[in-house]
Automatic annotation (TrEMBL):
GO terms for cellular component: cytoplasm. Its EC number is 3.5.2.7. This is Imidazolonepropionase. Belongs to the metallo-dependent hydrolases superfamily. HutI family. N-formimidoyl-L-glutamate binds at residues 158, 332, 334. Catalyzes the hydrolytic cleavage of the carbon-nitrogen bond in imidazolone-5-propanoate to yield N-formimidoyl-L-glutamate. It is the third step in the universal histidine degradation pathway.
Length: 420
């Protein structure tokens, strides 16, 4: 049965971000939002048909107003659906025991090097059935939706063998087919060096390059290839080999760069023309300059810095240097167990020197660019997928000021009301 059109009316602020689909938003453009006051949107067949002032939209659709489902957004802010461009969505178990160890003084890397951390979750994920992984991740997606996320990227990387990496990627595909949130998949077999290769990590890199990457690419289950380039995990040389192998097989490069120690990760991202470099807490000034020059999107994860009690990435400096900045939860069981993009946006303002306008751009259209989805989502424009969030806030600045609270009122995904 054909669905009723939706007419969203009288938004106090309709943040459209129009005209941003072709290129990531950089520099001062990140703080100049296109806003329509008393705005309206006509939604039909899953996509946005018209975005304008209420009087214009209602005049145009005058003869069809009766058939529409009307949402009154008076006194509220309406934005594009939030986009989370970096999650480790599919995994089993949780790590609150390690959280307690960290509170008592152990570091994240100490725990990982002692066989915990990513290895801990890998053991649990390898042991889990596809069904259990699906059920757990489905609940996580429901929480993401409650916080206004309508598209997200999901990485594998807790399998670390072809069989178990494929299991994670299959789960992501099933979620994409059954959950309202759209999922873009990334292969991250290079998330950690398994214990059995600890003394010969290059052997594991050989397996990634010669066996896993070609098979994953052939399956069509991933669009991107990611690597944890970090002292004690994969070196910049190994990371480059892994990312180049992916590129040869059509997987676009992403990189976990300069998270814990400065390691030339931003420079590597620029050299490879990576779609994004993520984390960047310890990125060098030169690396930042090169990322701006090459148009690599910086995906910043202030929730991870917060949770690891580390100094956040310098978002302000990156924006001022001309880097396109996006924001993400980094949802994972070890360094960022949260599905709240609004809280991440709060942290963007409070710990990274970003403005309320900048964090909104970073969590919508720039996040879409970071996962190559800006042609479909990330802004409110005719022809785009009708993904919108109504926030119970009188203006977009209030969303950052009233921090740590879920202000989501209504979520529309592909033209359907999914949260109300
Ligand atoms: O992005 N840094 C590496 N990977 C994840 C953490 C994964 C985990 O601890 O399970 C991250 O922070
Ligand atoms: Fe991550």
């Amino acid at each position: 049965m054909k669905q009723k059109p939706i007419l969203l009316r009288h938004a106090a602020q309709l943040v459209t971000l129009q005209g941003t689909s072709a290129q990531p938003v950089t520099g001062t453009a990140m703080s100049t939002l296109h806003i329509i006051e008393d705005g309206a949107v006509w939604i039909e067949d899953g996509s946005i048909q018209m975005v304008d002032r209420d009087e214009v939209v209602t005049a145009f659709y005058r003869d069809r107003m009766q058939e529409a489902h009307v949402i009154d957004a008076s006194g509220k802010v309406v934005t594009p659906g939030l986009i989370d461009p970096h999650t480790h969505l599919v995994f089993a178990g949780s790590r609150e025991n390690e959280f307690e160890m960290r509170l008592a003084g152990k570091t994240y890397m100490e725990i990982m090097n002692a066989g915990g951390g990513i290895h801990n979750t890998t053991r649990a994920t390898q042991a889990a059935s596809e069904e259990d992984l699906y059920e757990e991740a489905y609940q996580r997606l429901n929480r993401f939706l409650q916080y206004g996320v309508t598209t997200l990227e999901a990485k594998s990387g807790y399998g670390l063998t072809l069989e178990h990496e494929m299991k994670q990627l299959h789960v992501a595909k099933r979620l994409q087919d059954t959950h309202p949130i759209d999922i873009v998949s990334t292969f991250m077999g290079a998330h950690a060096v398994p214990a059995e290769y600890k003394h010969d990590p290059d052997r594991f890199v050989d397996i990634l390059v010669n066996e896993m990457i070609p098979e994953v690419a052939k399956s069509g289950l991933a669009q991107f290839n990611d690597v944890f380039c970090e002292h004690g995990v994969f070196t910049p040389e190994q990371s480059e080999r892994i990312l180049r192998a992916g590129m040869e097989h059509g997987l676009l490069p992403k990189i976990h760069a300069d998270e814990i120690e400065p390691y030339q990760g931003a420079e590597l991202a620029a050299r490879l023309g990576a779609v994004s470099a993520d984390h960047l807490l310890r990125a060098s000034d030169e690396g930042i300059r090169q990322m701006a020059e090459k148009g690599v999107v910086a995906v910043l994860l202030p929730g991870t810095a917060f949770f690891l009690k580390a100094e956040a990435a310098n978002g302000r400096k990156m924006i001022d240097a001309g880097v396109a900045v996006a924001l993400s939860t980094d949802r994972n069981p070890g360094s960022s167990p949260s599905e709240s993009m609004p809280f991440i946006m709060n942290l963007g303002c409070l710990t990274m020197g970003m403005t309320p306008a900048e964090v909104l751009v970073a969590a919508t259209i720039n996040a879409a660019h970071a996962i190559k989805q800006a042609h479909r989502v990330g802004s409110l424009e005719k022809g785009k997928v009708a993904d919108l969030v109504v926030f119970d806030a009188p203006n977009y600045s209030y969303m950052q000021y009233n921090y740590g609270v879920n202000l989501v009122d209504t979520v529309i995904k592909a033209g359907k009301i999914v949260v109300q």
